[in-house]
Amino acid sequence: MSTKKKVLIGLGIYALINVAMIVIFGSDGKNDAFQPQNEFKLDNWVEITIAGIDMSINKAVLYLVLAATMTCVTMIFIANRMAAKPNRVQMAVELAYDVTKNMIVGDNMQEKWAKRWFGFIASLFFFIWFSNMIGLIPLPTNTEHKVDIFGIEFPSFALYAATANISLPLVLATVVCTTYHLEGVREHGPINYLGSFLPSGLETMPAIGKVLIWVIELISHTVRLISLSVRLFANILAGHLLILFMGGGLAVLLGLAALGTISFPLVVAFYAFEVGLVATLQAFIFSILTAIYIGSATSHGH
Amino acid sequence: MDLLANIAGVLPVVGEESGGGSFLVQPGAGLMIWTLLAFGVTMLILSKLALPKIGAALEERANRVSAEIEAAEKQRAEAEELLVEYRARLKEAREQADDITARARKAAELSEAGGADAGRQRGEEIVAAAKREAEAATRRAVEDLRKEMATLTLLATEKVTRKSLTTEDHKQLVEQALAEVDFSAISGGES
C-alpha cells in the first residue's frame, strides 16, 4: 500500500470519528459560565501593600520568581561545569550565548558599547526565554478551579506566562528605552542626541520639512516603547489563548464535545509551534531590538 | 454555519474590555516592581557569576582548538617532509641494492668461469704428472730388465764357457747381449 493511500485512509477514519462524535454528543448549547480570559486573571494569594502600592503575590509573581530562579540556576550551573567536551544542554546554552554575544550584541553596536551592554542584553534574552518556556509547562497554579483530591483542594494545572501579562514586557521595554536614550545623551550630548533623530540626507530640505520629519521620528521613538512591549505580550498571550481554545476551551465554550477531536491535533501543532519557535523568537526579537536601539543611539553614522 | 456563528460570538468576549478581560491589558504597578526586582537580581547574578565564566571558557576552548589545529598542521607538514625524505632514502636504498645484486651476479659469473679454468688446469697437471710418473716407471723397469739381462747373460756365458770371466770379458759380453735384445718394444721406442 502506498504512503498516499495510507494517509488518505487515516484521514478518512479521522473524519468518520469526527462525524460520529457530532452525532453521538450533539450540542449542549453555548456555555456562558466558562470565561476563558479568567485563565489569565491574577488572584492575590498573599495580600501585600507597600506605600499604597499593591505588591500582592499572585500567579504572575510566582512565574516571575520561577523564571528568575531557573535562569540563574541554569546559567550558573552551566558556567561552573564548562567541560571541554560539552553535553547537549551545555551546547544549547553555548549556542545561545554565542548568538547573544555575536549576532545580537556584536553585530549591532561598537565594541565599547557591546562590552558595556552585553550583560544587560544577554540577561534580557535569557530571562525572557526562560519566562516564555516556563509559561508552556503546565503547573498547578489555577486557584479559580480547584481539584479535589482525597478531600484536599489542589489548584488545577494551568498554562500561564509572566510575559503574557502586559506589566512585565512594559517595564522591560521602559528600562530598554530609558537606557538607550540615556546612552545616546551621554554619547552625543542632549542637543546633538535630539538632533540625531533626524535622518541624514535631508540637508537641502527647508526647515519646516525638517521639523515635521523630526516630529515623526520623535513619535516613532515613543512608539518603540509600546511596540516592544506589546509585541512580546501579544505573541505570548495569543499563543496561550490558541492552546487554551484548541486544547478543549472552544469545545467547552460552545458546548460541542465533538469539536475536541477536531481541535486536538491543532493544539499539538500550536504547542509545538510555541515551544519550538515563538518562545525563542520573541526573546530573540526583544533583545536584538534592544541592541539595535542602543547601537543606533550611540552610533555616529547618521 | 451555526458553529461558525457561535465561535464568532464567543471570541470578542476575550478582548472585550467590559466583558471582564480588561485586566489582560491593564499594567499593575506592583507586578512592574516585582518584574524590576526579579530582572535586576537575575541580571546582577548572571553578569557576576555566569556570563563571564561562560565567555572565558568559550574563549579558552576556541584558543585551544585553534592551537590544536595549528599543531596538527605543523605535524602534517613535518610528516610530509619525513615522507619525502623516506621516499628519497628508499630510492637510494633500492639503487644500492640493485647495484649490489649486479655486482654479485658479475662476481658469481666471474668465479664460475675461473673455477672451470682452474679445474681444467689442475686436470692437465694431474695428467702431466701421471705421464711423468709412468715414464719414470717405464724407465726404471727397462733399467731393471737390463740389469737382469746382464746377470742372466753372465751366468749363461759362465755355464757355457766354464770359466770365470774377467771384468773385461764381462763388459764385452754384456754389451754383446744387450745389443742383441731389442728394448725398444718395452720402452715405447724411446731407447
How would you describe this structure to a colleague?
The complex is a heterodimer of chains A (302) and B (191). Chain A is mainly α and 302 residues long. Chain A folds into two domains: 29 residues; 268 residues, no CATH class. Chain A is built from eight helices and four strands. In chain A, the strands form two sheets. Chain A has a two-stranded antiparallel sheet. In chain A, strands 3-4 form a two-stranded antiparallel sheet. In chain A, strand 1 and strand 2 form a beta hairpin. In chain A, helix 5 runs parallel beside helix 8. The radius of gyration of chain A is 25 Å and the shape is globular. The mean pLDDT of chain A is 84. With 191 residues, chain B is an all-alpha fold. Chain B has one domain. The chains are: A mainly alpha (302), B mainly alpha (191). At the A-B interface, strand 2, helix 2, helix 3, helix 4 and helix 5 of A face helix 1, helix 2 and helix 3 of B.
Describe the protein's topology.
The complex is a heterodimer of chains A (302) and B (191).
Chain A: H1 3-25, E1 49-50, E2 53-54, H2 59-80, H3 88-106, H4 111-134, E3 139-149, E4 152-158, H5 167-188, H6 190-195, H7 207-254, H8 259-298
Antiparallel strand pairs in A: 1-2, 3-4
Chain B: H1 2-15, H2 17-21, H3 29-161, H4 167-180
Identify the notable features of this structure and list them briefly:
heterodimer, A: 302 residues, mainly alpha, two-stranded antiparallel sheet, 4 strands, globular, B: 191 residues
